[in-house]
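This section describes the prediction task in plain terms. A model, or a person checking by hand, is given the sequence of a single protein chain and must write out its three-dimensional structure as a string of tokens. No templates, partner chains or ligands are provided. The sample shown here is typical of the held-out split.
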Amino acid sequence: MQPSLAGAAPAVAVDLRDVIETTPDYIIGISYPQVAAHYPPLAQAVHDYAEAARQQLMQATARLHGTKPAAPYDLSLQFSSVVETPRVVVVAAEGSSYTGGAHGRPLLERFVWLPQMQQMLAAEQLIPDAANWKPVSDFVRERLLTGLSQQLDADTAEADDRGQRLQNGSRKIDAGTAPEAANFSRFEPVMNADGSIRALRFVFPPEQVGTYADGKKVVEVPASVLVPLVAPAYRPLFRAG
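The expected answer:
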């Protein structure tokens, strides 16, 4: 959750320095975007996310009790600027953390800062009425099911296997797109040339709506669908068409 900071005390500036640490037990690489430093509350949110990931890695390393892991534990996290306008600033976080097992844990987050409103924007603030998530859910689900069907059509699997994979994939999509704000917490605005928002790109980490091998999934929902659903305070940010 990305809380509103409207009316809060001014945030203390956070020193966002890239991190590189290499030891026999673990490797850490964290890179920050310069844009975040211009907005202290955004910088704080980005730093807190990175620090939480780092602490999880260090706790896992401590549980080794000096035993050398088969492969060094690893945290790779990159923040990048997605949008920077007078009204909307967006930073993306993507990476992974490996602490044993078959593969690393994906790290994926989006941070939306509204400079003129002086607040972070979270999904539950954008669409506060729980019932209004159903049209978003229906739109995203339809797009993901279409993509799954096209993916299976491109494969050369037998018909029986295709049917099973379609059934399994559909169940995963249904669960991951249930009409709840938590399922749509990662989003980034897609901007018009005039600085208004023409769509929201919802981003789903690996395994939320597919398999780990499928990687992240994204679906754009146009402003024409969203405007009737969002809270009145945020509607001026959007322009359909």
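For orientation: Residues 20 and 170 are 41 Å apart (CA to CA).
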